[in-house]
Design brief:
Oligomer: single chain
CATH topology of the largest domain: Growth Hormone, Chain: A
Largest sheet: 2 strands, antiparallel
Subcellular location: Membrane
CATH class of the largest domain: Mainly Alpha
Shape: globular
Keywords: Membrane, Transmembrane, Transmembrane helix, Transport
InterPro entries: MFS (IPR011701), MFS_dom (IPR020846), MFS_trans_sf (IPR036259)
Distance between the termini: 77 Å
CATH architecture of the largest domain: Up-down Bundle
Membrane topology: Multi-pass membrane protein
Strand order of the largest sheet: 1-2
Main location: membrane
Order of helices and strands: HHHHHHHHHEEHHHHHH
Number of strands: 2
CATH superfamily of the largest domain: MFS general substrate transporter like domains
Length: 328
């Protein structure tokens, strides 16, 4: 009888730890491919346009803003390059922040901030203020998939795709990096070629400032659209939030198949938080550990600590070689 009780207890523990549930790959594949994925991919074009506008706009506005900002060759060089200096600092932060706080908060917050920066650009009448804003905007955005909101897009979108479709769809999504820049330039062609003078109070604003205001729509609209999408189920499962992940998967399944969310074939998910270095601790100690991990000091230590291996073997030589090829 004692043996039977032990067996039942063991079975109960086995069910509670989620080991009999489905993995993320099985769960996301069961949602299929349909309207939800198409809407997400289409929305990501707006997201890419918002981020890439930060790098393309300085070069576009220089001929128009030359007199207003008193631009000489040195100032033009700084204005066009300062955004990339911001990216260098941002690249070490965003990946860590995304893993700690989730993909969606990076995407939504980043897009609204990028839209806000474009509005501030439009009200700028000082070269130095524009340079400062460009630096911080660069911190929020990146032209590659390593940092900032773009890095979050490149992680977020494939986490809603099953293995069957992931590679093919992401090849298409990667083309948005180029298309986003083209969209920004088309906006410039439509606005910067016009003679626009708007008086607000005692100040007069010209076409290059109106261009920035128009480009703010990418970030603001993209931020609003991002609110319609859930947090990544993969991220939720990695944090042990299987109930939230299951609700998100049911919603995706319902939109893709036009069926009731209750008909989603998977009813339980595997506990994948174990594979991310989390252990079964008490709720109190777990919350304390998570709070410490999200402290700004911990984030900066972890972010800049990722640079150290680059300057050590076996990566140092490859890093120098890649830099030489890139710049020379």
């Amino acid at each position: 009888m004692s043996t039977k009780g032990t067996s039942e207890d063991s079975s109960e523990v086995h069910q509670n730890d989620g080991s009999d549930g489905k993995s993320f790959e099985e769960a996301i594949s069961a949602t299929g491919f349909g309207l939800y994925n198409i809407l997400l991919v289409a929305t990501s074009l707006i997201w890419f346009s918002a981020s890439l506008n930060i790098t393309t706009s300085p070069g576009l506005i220089m001929p128009i803003a030359q007199c207003d900002l008193d631009l000489d060759l040195d100032r033009k060089g700084w204005l066009n390059s300062i955004v990339y200096l911001g990216m260098i600092f941002g690249a070490s932060i965003w990946g860590v922040v995304g893993d700690m706080f989730g993909r969606k908060i990076i995407i939504t917050g980043g897009l609204f901030l990028l839209g806000t920066f474009n509005i501030l650009y439009g009200f700028t009448t000082s070269y130095y203020m524009l340079v400062i804003l460009e630096f911080f905007a660069g911190f929020l955005s990146s032209e590659n998939s390593a940092s900032g909101p773009i890095g979050a897009y490149m992680v977020y979108v494939p986490e809603f795709l099953g293995v069957k479709y992931r590679a093919r769809v992401m090849v298409f999504v990667c083309s948005f990096i180029t298309l986003g820049a083209i969209v920004s330039m088309l906006f410039g062609l439509l606005i910067l070629t016009q003679s626009i003078n708007i008086s607000i109070g005692s100040r007069e604003y010209h076409s290059w400032q109106v261009y920035y205001w128009a480009c703010s729509s990418f970030g603001l609209i993209g931020g609003c659209l991002s609110l319609l999408f859930p947090e990544s189920p993969k991220y939720l499962m990695s944090r042990g939030k299987n109930a939230e992940a299951l609700k998100a998967l049911q919603r995706i399944y319902s939109i893709n198949t036009r069926k009731s969310s209750e008909s989603y074939p998977i009813k339980s998910l595997r506990d994948e938080s174990q594979s991310n270095g989390q252990s079964h601790q008490s709720v109190e100690s777990g919350e304390k550990s998570e709070k410490d991990a999200k402290a700004p000091s911990h984030i900066f230590r972890k972010a800049f600590g990722q640079f150290i291996p680059i300057f050590q073997r076996p990566y140092l030589f490859n890093c120098l070689l890649a830099g030489f090829i890139e710049f020379f």
